[in-house]
Amino acid sequence: MENSNGAKAHPPRTRRLGIWLVGAHGGVATTTAVGTLAIRKGLAVPRGLVTELSDFSALDLAPLSGVSFGGWELRPGTWREAAHEIQDRSGTFKESLLGAVEEDLAGFDRWVKPGLAAGCGEAIGALAPGARREHPVDFFARAVEDLARFRREARLDAVVVVNVASSEPPPAVGLLESLTTWTSFAKELKRRLPRLPASVVYAAAAIEARCPYVNFTSSAGSNVPALAARALKNGVPHMGADGKTGETWVKTVLAPAFLARNLKILSWEGHNILGDGDGRILAHLENARAKLQDKDQALRRILKDPAVHSRVRIDYVPSLDDWKTAWDFIHFEGFLGVKMILQFIWQGCDAALAAPLILDLARLVEFAQKGGEAGWMTHLACFFKNPRGVEENGFEAQFERLRAYVRAHVQNRRNPPLASSALFRYRR
Amino acid sequence: MENSNGAKAHPPRTRRLGIWLVGAHGGVATTTAVGTLAIRKGLAVPRGLVTELSDFSALDLAPLSGVSFGGWELRPGTWREAAHEIQDRSGTFKESLLGAVEEDLAGFDRWVKPGLAAGCGEAIGALAPGARREHPVDFFARAVEDLARFRREARLDAVVVVNVASSEPPPAVGLLESLTTWTSFAKELKRRLPRLPASVVYAAAAIEARCPYVNFTSSAGSNVPALAARALKNGVPHMGADGKTGETWVKTVLAPAFLARNLKILSWEGHNILGDGDGRILAHLENARAKLQDKDQALRRILKDPAVHSRVRIDYVPSLDDWKTAWDFIHFEGFLGVKMILQFIWQGCDAALAAPLILDLARLVEFAQKGGEAGWMTHLACFFKNPRGVEENGFEAQFERLRAYVRAHVQNRRNPPLASSALFRYRR
Amino acid sequence: MENSNGAKAHPPRTRRLGIWLVGAHGGVATTTAVGTLAIRKGLAVPRGLVTELSDFSALDLAPLSGVSFGGWELRPGTWREAAHEIQDRSGTFKESLLGAVEEDLAGFDRWVKPGLAAGCGEAIGALAPGARREHPVDFFARAVEDLARFRREARLDAVVVVNVASSEPPPAVGLLESLTTWTSFAKELKRRLPRLPASVVYAAAAIEARCPYVNFTSSAGSNVPALAARALKNGVPHMGADGKTGETWVKTVLAPAFLARNLKILSWEGHNILGDGDGRILAHLENARAKLQDKDQALRRILKDPAVHSRVRIDYVPSLDDWKTAWDFIHFEGFLGVKMILQFIWQGCDAALAAPLILDLARLVEFAQKGGEAGWMTHLACFFKNPRGVEENGFEAQFERLRAYVRAHVQNRRNPPLASSALFRYRR
Amino acid sequence: MENSNGAKAHPPRTRRLGIWLVGAHGGVATTTAVGTLAIRKGLAVPRGLVTELSDFSALDLAPLSGVSFGGWELRPGTWREAAHEIQDRSGTFKESLLGAVEEDLAGFDRWVKPGLAAGCGEAIGALAPGARREHPVDFFARAVEDLARFRREARLDAVVVVNVASSEPPPAVGLLESLTTWTSFAKELKRRLPRLPASVVYAAAAIEARCPYVNFTSSAGSNVPALAARALKNGVPHMGADGKTGETWVKTVLAPAFLARNLKILSWEGHNILGDGDGRILAHLENARAKLQDKDQALRRILKDPAVHSRVRIDYVPSLDDWKTAWDFIHFEGFLGVKMILQFIWQGCDAALAAPLILDLARLVEFAQKGGEAGWMTHLACFFKNPRGVEENGFEAQFERLRAYVRAHVQNRRNPPLASSALFRYRR
Question: Which of A304, A324, A335 to mutate to test the interface with B (most CBs of B within 10 A)?
């Protein structure tokens, strides 16, 4: 491996990053892997990657050329099959492009390991009827080892875990909040029937393996006191929840502008329709609940008006496949009480919107860990519907926070800091 | 000025502000006057006024209760008639509300004086076929006196001139740029047939009368070197051009977010339809040209991509009256070259959107003059499609600039500044 | 009364028609009454009335000038109050128009009688908490008398009953179908707690009073075997159900065209939002059920493809008042399996759409009764989401059926028929 | 004709039809050819073909399995290249499907002959800068021979010519109307610089070669008195103009319904955007004029209200390729003058919409010729924006006319007609 000999000065652009995806054969994960290979081969430009903006070029981020993929998956099959399924349904990538990357894609199959069938709800469980019913405590031990082996055998400098699985039903009220210590978490994990959502077990394994963790779904993930504390102790950056890719992104771009103009939002109706695996899962109310709340809360936290009438619906429309379509109807009141309307219609391919952000997040949390940062990465709020540890939900303000982080770090490289910034919680 | 004498007979909240409107009986001007009276009488809340946001409460802005209106108008008629016409067509204000303010509205009629029929193009000229053909140099002298008399007779502390007339055809290329001195401007004004757009003569009169000037249209207004220099000399704040009220506002809210996400805008088509006097004038290509350019440039300056395909259309649809409707189709490219779409449909009442901003601008330029500021008020960029003297066209960044101004001035009130801020050009 | 003396030749344009509205102070009923008076006074043209198309002028329909209104209502109040409430919220009629008709409107108040509080569901019941709890059998007797007295005291030639009340929850499955004879119906009516929906009792009273009956809601109304038989026996024309005024109308205009072009509908999502009393009631799932089914079935009966994915949603958005807004997303497959999209957005004022159709239907069923027709008026299918006794749901084909009826009757006037048409079921 | 000989070697379902396309390598022509081959190979169903509806199965139409393609084209290249270009840009057909038909497609290349570079306007001419400048009279002679050879060498039972080239600029006013005899046409053709649009020369050649002719564009085609007379004389069915595939189709579906409901259309704005070759040509105002008029007239002929405000725009948006997108804004007035709105957004792939109709029209005009019909085929009005020889523009009524034709002919097959129908002009 090029970085392993002592003679070389480790040129930063050859750092090797592993991205370990929960839900490895889903649309988002597969598109991320295919796209990374396409960019590497010069068949596509890195469009949609925030970290490829010029502002970020002075940061020492892991290069896309050194990224490898692995992950956990409940369903049988290969990455190649998953890619062909996406190609057939959504037409996101051309057959010829797929042909050019298939061999490399198949090379990642060795790093796909069985996921955890317990704790993800009936709808997700039904996707993999024959999945091995491993006890969560056994899975946890194996998962830590899966990550270590990926790092070792793929000769990686760092491994980041990203949850891109479908939304789980929420756990029993109060359960996760009650797990304030690693001991209490471990005790729950060892019960005969642990009440832990699968996403929490995945996050715990990542943190235990000292892998930065990103929760791109509305599931609980690392949002458990015991895990947040463990992340700080283990020097693990983590962040979530629920990637802000489409309709909610537009919402959080528009809503602050209405506030700035002192225009009163009367009603904001958002109706999302989508097909695909994700749509099929979200057709189950218990799975949709957390996502609906994330989408609505992002708006309500900006508007800060309890009287506003807002509603989010997500309906399953199989023929759309991955082409999420949303109609938002915004009723607002202006001067003299005149009621006016802004409507928008969003037609986006969910996986193609999410994939570049997965790469961004993986690079940014790896960068943070390399610099000694740990805990909730609040400067990444702009990537999430429901960002943890931060009040700001307006997109522009969130993005300005990320730009400030970048400026501070670029500054730091030129003038090494005398003391840690107040902005970030560094590892002790 | 009332605050400088030791007796302090006038607490600051009773400062009396006169707003002198170019196009006094148009929809925007009339709605501004009716609305101000309605708010004063407690029949409406000051919705849509940026200066009523809590951030602005610590600034010592002129109160709405002390605002009077006057203006120049080409057409015959009264403010009451203009208000009833709006009521009939657009339904912006209810008959009962109009009834409650009619008497006060009629009181402003004495301050409406004939406008300048020369230099506003055939379409606008046709609105007032019988208008007196005053020579611009005569008009200029009278106009300065009109403003002085308004201030004197209405016992106002300050008069602000706001141009809310329809868009003029652009003047001969290079003419305005060539007027670099007040002498050259005066020479042109005295020609037998001055080639000056009416808006320039209005702006010159305002500046000569030491009245802050706001150009809410796409016409040239004070954007003439000789006038800009005179404004600095006379201690007059001024700003323009072209109020950003609806579709362009939404455009400048959305476009920066696409840049932030590294999503490539391929095409952005904006199709505006509107009726009303404004629509009738804009149906004339020469009148629409400047506005179309303002609307398109606001976007193109943000996107900074010469290859982007953008187009703005404005079509006259009489049945819409003042209900401007716009369809924007945004075609963008994401990861792996996938093309996606965001469309928005805007349905707003133009006059009701513009009116509160007129009040905001009048209050803010009066505030600036009171504090000794002069020249282009770049902190007001967020109110304009084509802000002078500032590169920023993204709405959020523009609004942050205004917030910074407010913070600086609130700070200043507590800790008087030792030196003038670099942000603003103060009077010498 | 002018028609009652034998000397005159009964000029057809002076026939006096009474329209008795179930839900007399609701938006539809009130708008119908106000509009009829406005047309009569020359303040409005009869826009939206199908019966005012030139094709219908040769039919001897009751003139609008002779129409009087009465009805049943659960809530207290007057028609004038109801009209002012509509005026405030939806702006459907101007204050000045309302002023011009108020006195005449008040004249109809004497014909508004208490409605039946039992059997209309909790949501509707809650509108009138203090309503007298009359036993249905008592109400029935009084209702027959209410209609007779209206006819007598208002000196009317005919009275038509139109149900424009909000949708009821559906009755117990199989109950209405089991009431095949008038005896069985009467027996149910006399139970201590009859399980009959209020709409059925209203319809029965109309039929018993020999008043043509129109069911403009999705409630059961006369769709009971016993009532249909009684209508034939009593010579009463009746029809329903659920007025086709807006989104469903557009659906049934568009859907047949896709069939004609052999384009396969993959998905048809219809999302309705509305405020107002109707929206508030439909926010209750049990009340919405029948309407949702009517809206969806109208489409599915046209498409005849069990595999099509269709869904209708109705959500309550208070700020919209009566301005029903609907977004329909139509996903279809063309040549080579290419998926394409048609979306439509409907913004209509429900009461203003329904009111002229109420007048049309009242005139047409009165005309039918006058000509000796009875039973289901299938030629009126084009007015209903769920037309009884007819398979056709495409709007154009339904309208052609109505035109054929008109042609046949105009023909008949010139050449009296030798035998009854097969198209209509005449009274024995 | 082959069916008339007693040997009956050819059962009717194996009749071989040649379709000769003007603009052979354009998107519509290429999609038609690729799609026909795909259907023949069982890789696609005949979706979008009206002639595959069950109503048409009893007609003896030429089977798709026997269809061959040829045509005239100005640009160099092959059908395979044209197909790959479409595949790259619009994704209409998958790479694998294209692979399966490429060989057969290449087989048609031998029947593609040079088009006529004169008379199609500068924009189209610029597509083929190196095209041979053949004199129209020479082209005409060769064209008749091209058709004859196609029929002979491809062993076809009939050849139909379909114009799917881009819209030409309209010819000098009055010129075509003045060509009332074949002699006058021939004289114009022989001038040194004939003023004939290319489409007229193509149509004349088709008629002279006794090939049924379909004008799918807004160009003049056979709409010349001399040609119409010649078609009758030669026993040639022909029809046009301008295929009704998308936005205009929806318009003519919706507009009659507004009339039926007595709702007054105030304004109807249609804004079309598209890329592709067709869009590029239509960006030239002279080329767009005829199409704009066809699109607007289709609506205005239905509404029959000279006061209606309607406008059609077509703008070139390169990134859309063949994905024509249209926004239609329909402003209408209902009861009590309430203004309401229906908007629709159409997103269709133009070539995929047109291709099946090309096949329908070719089959139907061949069928007509086989039955001895000639002249304008008015029963095909439903396929055209501007149908010749027929007043009806509402789609449903037009389609009913086609169904009546089918019913009459199915009837005829069972009971041979005693006399020619009044509906169609038969050959003498």
Answer: A335
Cα distance between residue D37 and residue D39, in whole Å: 5
Task: Find residue D376's DSSP bridge partners.
Answer: D238
In C, minimum Cα distance to B343 occurs at: C343
- Assembly ipTM: 0.92
Count of CB atoms situated within 10 Å of the CB of C111: 21
**In a mutagenesis test of the A interface, which of B338, B344, B345, B405 is the best target, namely the one with the most A β-carbons within 10 Å?**
B338
Judge: C96–B95 Cβ closer than 8 Å, yes or no. yes
State the Rg of chain D over Cα: 21
| CB C181 within 8 Å of CB C229 | yes
Decide: helix, strand or coil at residue D157.
coil
Angstroms from A83 CA to nearest CA on chain D: 15
Q: How far is CA B68 from CA A277, B270, B353, D77, D152, in A?
A: 62, 37, 20, 73, 89
List all residues 6 or more positions away from C53 whose beta carbon is below 8 Å from its beta carbon: D260, D262
B252 contact partners, CB below 8 Å, separation of at least 6: B244, B298, B299, B302, B393, B394, B395, B398
* pLDDT, average across residues D310-323: 92
Tell me how far apart the alpha carbons of residues C29 and C35 are, in angstroms, rounded to a whole number. Answer: 10
Cβ atoms of C303 and C255 within 8 Å: the answer is yes
pLDDT tens for each residue of D123-165: 777 777 776 778 999 999 999 999 999 999 999 999 999 999 9
Q: What is the distance of C-alpha B246 from the center of its chain?
A: 14
**Tens of pLDDT, residues A131-156:** 677 899 999 999 999 999 999 999 99
pLDDT bucket at B411, cuts 50 / 70 / 90: confident
DSSP H/E element including A339: strand A339-349
> How far apart are alpha carbons A41 and C150 in whole angstroms?
85
Structural tokens at position A287? 């799975």
- Residue D46's pLDDT band (boundaries 50, 70, 90)? very high
Query: What distance in Å separates residue B94's CA from the closest CA in chain C?
Result: 8
Identify the residue among D95, D264, D338, D341 best suited for mutation to test binding to C, counting C beta carbons within 10 A and taking the highest.
D338
Residue D6 vs residue C78, higher pLDDT: C78
Quote the DSSP letter at residue A171: -
Length of chain B: 428
Taking only the tens place, the pLDDT of each residue in B101-120 is 999 999 999 999 999 988 77
Domains defined for chain C, CATH in brackets: 12-243+352-414 (3.40.50.720), 247-348 (3.30.360.10)
Q: What is the pLDDT of residue B126?
A: 74
Q: What is the pLDDT of residues D362-420, one digit of tens each?
A: 999 999 999 999 999 999 999 999 999 999 999 999 999 999 999 999 877 766 544 43
Would you say D40 and D47 are in contact if contact means Cβ atoms under 8 Å apart?
Answer: no
Range of A76-90, A414-428, B3-17, D277-291 with top mean pLDDT = A76-90
Q: How many whole angstroms separate alpha carbon C380 and alpha carbon C358?
A: 12
List CB contacts (< 8 A) between B267 and chain D: 273, 317-320
Instruction: Please give, rounded to a whole number of angstroms, the shortest distance from the CA of C104 to a CA of chain A.
Output: 31
Sequence-separated (6 or more) residues with CB below 8 Å from residue A107 = none
Looking up tokens 């009893």, which residue turns up? D58
Strand order of the β-sheet with D339-349 is C309-316, C264-274, C323-333, C339-349, D339-349, D323-333, D264-274, D309-316
Tokens read off for D24 = 């052979």
Which chain C residue shows the shortest CA-CA distance from B97? C95
DSSP A11-42: -GGG--EEEEEETTTSHHHHHHHHHHHHHHTT
E strand or H helix at A340: strand A339-349
Q: What is the pLDDT of residues A322-332, one digit of tens each?
A: 899 999 999 99
CB of A59 closer than 8 Å to CB of A406:
yes
Question: What's the mean pLDDT in C198-213?
Answer: 97
